[in-house]
C-alpha cells in the first residue's frame, strides 16, 4: 500500500486491520508492503476483507480515510478427488445383456471448479476388465461381457479411479472398490446324476411307508432351484406315489397300496423332475426337466393268513337245537408254502359261549339255544393261525343274526285298569286297549282281540276289535252300583299273526266309580261312599287337623324332655365334694390329722341308707352290711377307703359314690421333680436334705426320712 502524501521521509505509518490482520497478514508500517505469514488454503477460506489506513507516525492522526480491499486466494490443484464411499456393493443378474447398468459411483474434488481444470473429474476402471466398464463422465458401471454365468463365477471386484485436470498428466486421482455379485436366474434345468435307481420294499409294508428317494441336481439357488417330482409312466403308477421334500429337494417314493409278492415281484416307474418356476427369457435353454427310471423289487415276507371275505354275516333261527350249523369261514396262507390253517373263536366276543368252531374246516355251530328277544345279533371274532407259525394270525368279524320264530304270545301293552261310571249308558265305550309282542313284526301284528267262549255273552261288558291292533271295551247294561259290586275282572284273549299263531288271556280290572252328570269321576271307593252319608267332607278335614295338632304337641313335649339333662343320682343336699376348703397354714405331713375332719370325705347321705339312681330301677334293695362302715369321726384313712371300696364292689345297682384318682403323670416337659415320698424314698438322690433339721419340729419327720445316709445308718 502506498499513500500519495508519502514523501518517503518516514513520517507516515501504515496500519492494517480486518480478517486475518496481524495473524495471517502483516504490513510493513514504513513501506506499506503486506506479507502472508503462512500458507493459505482456498478450500479453507477463499478470500479476506482487510482495511488499511495511513496515519501520522508521531500523532497517529489519520492522514487519509481508511481504504477497504479484498484479498482473494487463487486456487491451485492441491486436492485429489474423493469418493463418497470407500467400498461399494452392487448386484446384477447373471446373463445380463452388455451395457446393463450395475451402479453409479460419484467422487468430489474440493478445488475450485470455476478456475482451471482442477475440479474436472474423469472416471476410469483399473480392475474388473473385461467384465465391466465405467462411463468416464458419469461414473456409471455397466456390464461389458454377455452371458456371465453365476454358476461359473458369482462375485467380481472392480476398482474405479476418478482423476482431476480432465484426466491429463499431472492431475490428482482417487480410487474406490466396487464388489459386484451376480444374482441367480433360472438358466439351468434339473439333472439326475444317474439314469436308473434300484429300490426294494417288503410286501408286508403298509401304505404310506417310504420306499426310497431320488434327487435331481439343479445348480440354481432359491426358488429358481426348486424341483417338483412326479410319476409319469410305469406299471407301478397305481401302487406307488412320489412326493417332494422341499427341505432336501428330494423326491420321496412311497407305497400307495398293499403289495403281494406272490402276485407281482417287481415294478418300474418313470419319474420326472421339473423346475417349479421357469423364466421365460431362458425358455430356449430348456426343457427345464429331466426323467429317470426307478425299479422297485418286492421282497417276500411271511404273511399271516387271509380270509376270503373281510367280514361274514350268517343267520340262524332262534331256539335252534344245539349243534346247528351257522356258517363257515375260510382263510388261506398267501405265502408260497400254503400252510394249513387252524380256526378259533375269540372268547372275549362270545362270553356266554353260544358258538363253537371246527378248528380245521371253519364251520361255526351253536352250543345252546338262542333267544332273539334276548339278543337279536351276535358279533363274534374268528382267529385264523398257521399250524407251524402260531404268531401269524388273522382276525375276521362274524355277525350272526338270530331269525325270529313265533314263541311269544301277545300281551297287554300296559297294566290297564279301567273305570266305569255307575250311571254309564248301554254300549258306552270306557277304555281302549292295545297289545305288544316281543317277537318280530312278522310274528306279531295283526292282533285279534276277543272274549273267552265261556263268557262270550257277558251280561256286563262287551268287546269290539277295532282291527288296528286295538280293541274297545263297552258297557252292555246300565245301572252299576258300588255298594253291590265295585270291582269286575274281564278276561280278554289276544292272538298274534304269527305262524302258527299264539294267544294269551289277559285280565282287565274294571272299577265302578261315582261320576257327575258330565261323566267325570268323583270317587271309586265304596267305604268313602258310605261315610259320605253320615259325615260331611268338612267334618272329616276338621278331625284330621285335630289329630295332626295333637301329634305335633306330643313330638315337641318329647323333644324338650330329651334336651333336659338330669344327674344320675338324687342328692338332698349339695355334694360335699364341690366345696372348696381353704387352709391358711401348711400341713404337718401325712401324720397331721388335726387340720381337717375326715368325716367331710364321707357321703352324708350314704350313712343313713342306700341312695338309688334315677335312670336304673334296682332289681332289689341293697342293704349295707353292718360292721363295715367306720365311725363318722374315725381318722383311720386306710380303713375308710377300704370300706368304701367294698361297698362299691358289692353294690349291683349304682356306681361307687367316690372314686380313687391316681395321678402318676407329672406333665410333659416339667422341670420340677417328683414330690412323692413313695418314689424318693426308694431312689438314690444326690440332693442334700440335711437343712430340714433346722426347720423345726414340724419337719423332723421329713428330715429323718430324707436325711443323709449317715443318719440312716445311725438309726439302724
UniProtKB/TrEMBL annotation:
<dbReference type="GO" id="GO:0016339">
    <property type="term" value="P:calcium-dependent cell-cell adhesion via plasma membrane cell adhesion molecules"/>
</dbReference>
<keyword id="KW-0677">Repeat</keyword>
<keyword id="KW-1003">Cell membrane</keyword>
<comment type="function">
    <text>Cadherins are calcium-dependent cell adhesion proteins.</text>
</comment>
<feature type="domain" description="Cadherin">
    <location>
        <begin position="412"/>
        <end position="529"/>
    </location>
</feature>
<dbReference type="GO" id="GO:0005912">
    <property type="term" value="C:adherens junction"/>
</dbReference>
<feature type="domain" description="Cadherin">
    <location>
        <begin position="3"/>
        <end position="83"/>
    </location>
</feature>
<dbReference type="GO" id="GO:0045296">
    <property type="term" value="F:cadherin binding"/>
</dbReference>
<dbReference type="GO" id="GO:0007043">
    <property type="term" value="P:cell-cell junction assembly"/>
</dbReference>
<dbReference type="GO" id="GO:0016342">
    <property type="term" value="C:catenin complex"/>
</dbReference>
<keyword id="KW-0812">Transmembrane</keyword>
<dbReference type="InterPro" id="IPR020894">
    <property type="entry name" value="Cadherin_CS"/>
</dbReference>
<keyword id="KW-0325">Glycoprotein</keyword>
<dbReference type="GO" id="GO:0016477">
    <property type="term" value="P:cell migration"/>
</dbReference>
<dbReference type="InterPro" id="IPR015919">
    <property type="entry name" value="Cadherin-like_sf"/>
</dbReference>
<feature type="domain" description="Cadherin">
    <location>
        <begin position="308"/>
        <end position="412"/>
    </location>
</feature>
<dbReference type="GO" id="GO:0005509">
    <property type="term" value="F:calcium ion binding"/>
</dbReference>
<dbReference type="GO" id="GO:0044331">
    <property type="term" value="P:cell-cell adhesion mediated by cadherin"/>
</dbReference>
<dbReference type="GO" id="GO:0007156">
    <property type="term" value="P:homophilic cell adhesion via plasma membrane adhesion molecules"/>
</dbReference>
<keyword id="KW-0472">Membrane</keyword>
<keyword id="KW-0106">Calcium</keyword>
<dbReference type="InterPro" id="IPR000233">
    <property type="entry name" value="Cadherin_Y-type_LIR"/>
</dbReference>
<dbReference type="GO" id="GO:0000902">
    <property type="term" value="P:cell morphogenesis"/>
</dbReference>
<keyword id="KW-1133">Transmembrane helix</keyword>
<dbReference type="InterPro" id="IPR002126">
    <property type="entry name" value="Cadherin-like_dom"/>
</dbReference>
<feature type="domain" description="Cadherin">
    <location>
        <begin position="193"/>
        <end position="307"/>
    </location>
</feature>
<dbReference type="Pfam" id="PF00028">
    <property type="entry name" value="Cadherin"/>
</dbReference>
<keyword id="KW-0165">Cleavage on pair of basic residues</keyword>
<feature type="transmembrane region" description="Helical">
    <location>
        <begin position="539"/>
        <end position="560"/>
    </location>
</feature>
<dbReference type="GO" id="GO:0034332">
    <property type="term" value="P:adherens junction organization"/>
</dbReference>
<dbReference type="Pfam" id="PF01049">
    <property type="entry name" value="CADH_Y-type_LIR"/>
</dbReference>
<keyword id="KW-0130">Cell adhesion</keyword>
<feature type="domain" description="Cadherin">
    <location>
        <begin position="84"/>
        <end position="192"/>
    </location>
</feature>
<dbReference type="InterPro" id="IPR039808">
    <property type="entry name" value="Cadherin"/>
</dbReference>
<protein>
    <submittedName>
        <fullName>CAD11 protein</fullName>
    </submittedName>
</protein>
<keyword id="KW-0732">Signal</keyword>
<dbReference type="InterPro" id="IPR027397">
    <property type="entry name" value="Catenin-bd_sf"/>
</dbReference>
<dbReference type="GO" id="GO:0008013">
    <property type="term" value="F:beta-catenin binding"/>
</dbReference>
<keyword id="KW-0479">Metal-binding</keyword>
Amino acid at each position: 500500500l502506498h499513500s500519495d502524501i508519502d514523501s518517503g521521509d518516514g513520517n507516515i505509518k501504515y496500519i492494517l486491520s480486518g480478517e486475518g490482520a496481524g495473524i495471517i497478514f502483516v504490513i510493513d508500517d514504513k513501506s506499506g508492503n503486506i506479507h502472508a505469514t503462512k500458507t493459505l488454503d482456498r478450500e479453507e477460506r477463499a478470500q479476506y476483507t482487510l482495511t488499511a489506513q495511513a496515519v501520522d507516525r508521531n500523532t497517529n492522526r489519520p492522514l487519509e480515510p481508511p481504504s477497504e480491499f479484498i484479498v482473494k486466494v487463487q486456487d491451485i490443484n492441491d486436492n485429489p478427488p474423493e469418493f463418497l464411499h470407500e467400498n461399494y456393493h452392487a448386484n446384477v443378474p447373471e446373463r445380463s445383456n452388455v451395457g446393463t447398468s450395475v451402479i453409479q459411483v460419484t467422487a468430489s474434488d474440493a478445488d475450485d471448479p470455476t478456475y482451471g481444470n482442477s475440479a474436472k473429474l474423469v472416471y476410469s476402471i483399473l480392475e474388473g476388465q473385461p467384465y465391466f466398464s465405467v462411463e468416464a463422465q458419469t461414473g456409471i458401471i455397466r456390464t461389458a461381457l454377455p452371458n456371465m454365468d453365476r454358476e461359473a463365477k458369482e462375485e467380481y471386484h472392480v476398482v474405479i479411479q476418478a482423476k482431476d485436470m480432465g484426466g491429463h498428466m499431472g492431475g490428482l486421482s482417487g480410487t474406490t472398490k466396487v464388489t459386484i455379485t451376480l444374482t441367480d436366474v433360472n438358466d439351468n434345468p434339473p439333472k439326475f446324476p444317474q439314469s436308473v435307481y434300484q429300490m426294494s420294499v417288503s410286501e408286508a409294508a403298509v401304505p404310506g411307508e417310504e420306499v426310497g428317494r431320488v434327487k435331481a441336481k439343479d445348480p440354481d439357488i432359491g426358488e429358481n432351484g426348486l424341483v417338483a417330482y412326479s410319476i409319469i409312466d410305469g406299471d407301478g403308477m397305481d401302487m406307488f406315489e412320489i412326493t417332494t421334500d422341499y427341505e432336501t429337494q428330494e423326491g420321496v417314493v412311497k407305497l400307495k397300496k398293499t403289495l403281494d409278492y406272490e402276485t407281482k415281484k417287481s415294478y418300474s416307474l418313470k419319474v420326472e423332475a421339473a423346475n417349479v418356476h421357469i423364466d421365460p427369457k431362458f425358455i430356449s435353454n430348456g426343457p427345464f426337466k429331466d426323467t429317470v427310471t426307478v425299479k422297485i423289487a418286492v421282497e417276500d415276507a411271511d404273511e399271516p393268513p387271509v380270509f376270503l371275505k373281510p367280514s361274514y354275516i350268517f343267520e340262524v333261527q332262534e331256539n335252534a337245537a344245539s349243534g346247528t350249523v351257522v356258517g363257515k369261514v375260510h382263510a388261506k396262507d398267501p405265502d408260497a408254502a400254503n400252510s394249513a390253517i387252524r380256526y378259533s373263536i375269540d372268547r372275549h366276543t362270545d362270553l356266554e359261549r353260544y358258538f363253537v368252531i371246527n378248528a380245521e374246516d371253519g364251520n361255526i355251530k351253536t352250543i345252546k339255544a338262542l333267544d332273539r328277544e334276548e339278543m337279536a345279533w351276535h358279533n363274534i371274532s374268528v382267529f385264523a393261525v398257521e399250524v407251524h407259525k402260531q404268531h401269524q394270525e388273522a382276525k375276521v368279524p362274524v355277525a350272526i343274526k338270530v331269525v325270529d320264530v313265533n314263541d311269544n304270545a301277545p300281551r297287554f301293552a300296559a297294566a290297564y285298569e279301567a273305570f266305569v261310571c255307575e250311571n254309564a249308558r248301554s254300549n258306552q265305550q270306557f277304555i281302549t286297549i292295545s297289545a305288544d309282542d316281543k317277537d318280530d313284526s312278522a310274528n306279531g301284528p295283526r292282533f285279534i282281540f276277543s272274549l273267552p267262549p265261556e263268557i262270550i255273552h257277558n251280561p256286563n261288558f262287551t268287546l269290539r276289535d277295532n282291527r288296528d291292533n286295538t280293541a274297545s271295551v263297552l258297557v252292555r247294561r246300565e245301572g252299576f252300583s258300588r255298594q253291590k259290586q265295585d270291582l269286575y275282572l274281564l278276561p280278554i284273549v289276544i292272538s298274534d299273526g304269527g305262524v302258527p299263531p299264539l294267544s294269551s288271556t289277559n285280565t282287565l280290572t274294571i272299577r265302578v266309580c261315582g261320576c257327575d252328570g258330565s261323566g267325570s269321576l268323583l270317587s271309586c271307593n265304596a267305604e268313602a261312599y258310605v261315610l259320605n252319608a253320615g259325615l260331611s267332607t268338612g267334618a272329616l278335614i276338621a278331625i284330621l287337623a285335630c289329630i295332626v295338632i295333637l301329634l305335633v304337641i306330643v313330638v315337641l313335649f318329647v323333644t324338650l324332655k330329651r334336651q333336659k339333662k338330669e344327674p344320675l343320682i338324687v342328692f338332698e343336699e349339695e355334694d360335699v365334694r364341690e366345696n372348696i376348703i381353704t387352709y391358711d397354714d401348711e400341713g404337718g405331713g401325712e401324720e397331721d390329722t388335726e387340720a381337717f375332719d375326715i368325716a367331710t370325705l364321707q357321703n352324708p347321705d350314704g350313712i343313713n341308707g342306700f341312695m338309688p339312681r334315677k335312670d336304673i330301677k334296682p332289681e332289689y334293695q341293697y342293704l349295707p352290711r353292718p360292721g363295715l362302715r367306720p365311725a363318722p369321726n374315725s381318722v383311720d384313712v386306710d380303713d375308710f377307703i377300704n370300706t368304701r371300696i367294698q361297698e362299691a364292689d358289692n353294690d349291683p345297682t349304682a356306681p361307687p359314690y367316690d372314686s380313687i384318682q391316681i395321678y402318676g403323670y407329672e406333665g410333659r416337659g416339667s422341670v420340677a421333680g417328683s414330690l412323692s415320698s413313695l418314689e424318693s424314698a426308694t431312689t438314690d438322690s444326690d440332693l442334700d436334705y440335711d437343712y430340714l433339721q433346722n426347720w423345726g419340729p414340724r419337719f423332723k419327720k421329713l428330715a429323718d426320712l430324707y436325711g443323709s445316709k449317715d443318719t440312716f445308718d445311725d438309726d439302724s
